[in-house]
Specification:
Strand content: under 5%
Helix content: over 70%
Number of helices: 7
Distance between the termini: 29 Å
Structural class: mainly alpha
């Protein structure tokens, strides 16, 4: 639901997400699909695979959101020296391949440092809070089940 609201807000305001934001959206989407799979399927081996996927996407999201917060707080001279995000993420994937595009997106760049909108926190800070919260809640839930 949050992804749909976020996509609507970005489209309504005309804000185009940087590659780091796009990767964070995909992390949310795949974590959500993994969580949905965990609630539907009850087979032991499949649950283990889905749990590893869920935690993997959440940790990957934490890495990207914390890196974006770091990039947003860099001084302007240091920010201009990094140039990982120069083009749209889909173009990076098309020309560089997925792994290299992820590496380039993780490096960040001036477009990733923009503070497009803010409601108490910006997108990257809200994403970090959400990823950490989901890990905390899923860990508590898993411990209660055992």
């Amino acid at each position: 639901m949050g992804l749909l609201i976020g996509a609507f807000i970005f489209d309504a305001l005309g804000i185009y997400p940087c590659p780091m934001c796009i990767v964070q959206r995909w992390c949310f989407a795949f974590a959500g699909l993994s969580a949905l799979g965990l609630s539907i399927f009850k087979k032991n081996y499949l649950n283990t695979l889905l749990m590893v996927g869920l935690y993997g996407f959440l940790i990957f999201g934490i890495l990207f959101s914390s890196r974006q917060i770091f990039v947003q707080n860099l001084p302007i001279d240091e920010l201009m020296s990094i140039g990982g995000c120069g083009m749209p993420f889909s173009t990076m994937v098309e020309y560089q391949g997925l792994l290299n595009a992820l590496i380039m997106a993780y490096q960040g760049g001036p477009s990733c440092a923009e503070d497009g909108w803010r409601f108490i926190f910006n997108f990257a800070e809200w994403a970090l809070i959400a990823f950490l919260g989901m890990i905390f809640l899923k860990t508590i839930s898993a411990l209660k089940q055992k």
